[in-house]
Here is the input.
Amino acid sequence: MKKTLQLTVLLAFLGAAPTWALPAAAPLQLTLRTLDGATFNLAAERGKWVILNQWATWCGPCLREMPQISAWVQQHPAHVAALGMAYDGITAREFAQFMRKHPVSYPVVLIDLESPPTAMPEPQELPSTYLLAPDGKVVKHFIGPIDGAKLDAAIAAARTLHPQWPAP
Here is the structure.
């Protein structure tokens, strides 16, 4: 605990406090219709770590990280959920064709660029990924590609402050 506090103070002094050390905001509220017609309700995922991955079909780094996120989610089915959020100007039919060529183990949604969800910020860079803790609050925002090692590290860091949260 002492090392965590020292690290947090040092990073805050340097202006680089990690998101897991920032004051907690309210849990995100998000309900979206997935590609398969189901409803993804973030509130229903409380108790799990949730990955909200913002990406686009034309984004090379996004496409390279999708299989890695998919495999990591499959390795942790009891305590992890994910949602892929495609910020793309393609039709629903084109999106479905794309997903058949690039399948993942988690639900995906095609975001309407004219009316994106207001519960979370629109991505300024892609890929952009939010890691939510089991209480529904954001503990880490990644910009750029992620993998299982980055997710493991972010969860381990968050759990130092909240050991009651389940390991993935």
Residues 124 and 158 are 25 Å apart (CA to CA). The beta strands are 31-33, 39-41, 49-55, 80-87, 108-111, 128-132, 138-143. DSSP finds four helices and seven strands in the chain.
